[in-house]
Amino acid sequence: MSSVAHSAExxxxxxxxxxxxxxxxxxxxxxxxxxxxxxxxDGGAWAAIRSRDERHLAPWEPDMPGLWTQRNTPAEWPAxxxxxxxxxxxxxxxxxxxxxxxxxxxxxxxxxxxxxxxWSAYIGYWVGSHAVLGGVTTAACALVLDHCFxxxxxxxIEATVRPENTASRRVLEKLGFREExxxxxxxxxxxxxxxxxxxxxxxxxxEVGLVERLVRKGQAxxx
Length: 223
Description:
Layout: H1 8-11, E1 25-28, E2 31-37, H2 43-52, H3 54-57, H4 68-71, H5 77-89, E3 94-100, E4 103-114, E5 120-127, H6 136-149, E6 156-161, H7 166-174, E7 178-189, E8 192-202, H8 210-216
Parallel strand pairs: 5-6
Antiparallel strand pairs: 1-2, 2-3, 3-4, 4-5, 6-8, 7-8
């Protein structure tokens, strides 16, 4: 049996187990990585990163109405934050911010949380171009996944990624996700319906927690 406790019972005690929560920190070559709930005051940093990094982010994110510059201004954040907070409070997802050395650097979203009988969800993530190296995304996702398989009580977590997104695929592979198939024309991304690979990780895949795995491999350290 995995050393990561499958606390499914915790998921039956309330509608939103595991959120809000601050998940601690890991030190990696890219800095001191933390994971915490998204905040209303993240809007300025969120908008600054996303406005600057359109070429870095837009090729991998689903198309939405309006221009990128219009959808990523500080004025857009309060409504987004309110929607994310509602999702978290209702137990439908766990919306987290990634910080590097205490500064907002991106997001991790655990969404489409389904409890009995599946106990499953998906994970998605992004970081600014300044934080793509040094293990930042991998460390943040490891913190979130340990939380999901532990306190939240999930059994299976999926991720979808375009085949061309080698950086995101490396993150998933370092975390132990397995490639399970190809979803044809899955999402409308960057102006067209794009194929996506499906990756998945289940509780049985983990002999130790993901954070512990990174620490043992020398890829991260607890502060």
